[in-house]
Specification:
One of its GO terms (molecular function) is GTPase activity. The protein is mainly α. The protein contains nine helices and no strands. The chain has one domain (41-166): Regulator of G-protein Signalling 4, domain 2, CATH 1.10.167.10.
């Protein structure tokens, strides 16, 4: 129901706009579950060295993922990784209702023009993704996710490998 959604946003904005007595009183409604700190152990030198050539190996390793995310945050460019992770989580959803809800959330957070964490994808990919979202399926974001993966591989990974975040790991 379109009206309810707009009403919900107005209520949330109303909550945010109320003047709190102190900064500690501000509560921002946030739908995602807080991230559980991953049980991680420092990777072996061999493991860490493999990341230079394989973004996938880096993303599959909890320690590597956390380190890569910290690096991207340090340069204010974590939206691509956050989008990639959101897509991975999306593909694990079984319920069509939850899938539609998560698809809408991913679209609003990362894909739509002027989204808070808008990822840099071409118009063609954006259009295909929007068409896919008419009837959300597990593959709705595949094309956009592949584009972002390629971008991270070509752009973010080489910068990460040159960073102190990575250099500390291979000392």
């Amino acid at each position: 129901v379109p009206g309810t959604w707009a009403k919900e946003i107005k209520i949330k904005l109303g909550i945010l706009l109320q003047k709190p007595d102190s900064v500690g009183d501000i509560v921002i409604p946030y739908n995602e579950k807080p991230e559980k700190p991953a049980k991680t152990h420092k990777p072996s030198l061999d493991e860490a060295l493999q990341w230079r050539d394989s973004l996938d190996k880096l993303l599959q390793n909890n320690y590597g993922l956390a380190s890569f995310k910290s690096f991207l945050k340090s340069e204010f460019s974590e939206e691509n990784l956050e989008f990639w992770i959101a897509c991975e989580d999306y593909k694990k959803i079984k319920s069509p209702a939850k899938m539609a809800e998560k698809a809408k959330q991913i679209y609003e957070e990362f894909i739509q023009t002027e989204a808070p964490k808008e990822v840099n994808i071409d118009h063609f990919t954006k259009d295909i993704t929007m068409k896919n979202l008419v009837e959300p399926s597990l593959s709705s974001f595949d094309m956009a996710q592949k584009r972002i993966h390629a971008l991270m591989e070509k752009d973010s990974l080489p910068r990460f490998v040159r960073s102190e975040f990575y250099q500390e790991l291979i000392k």
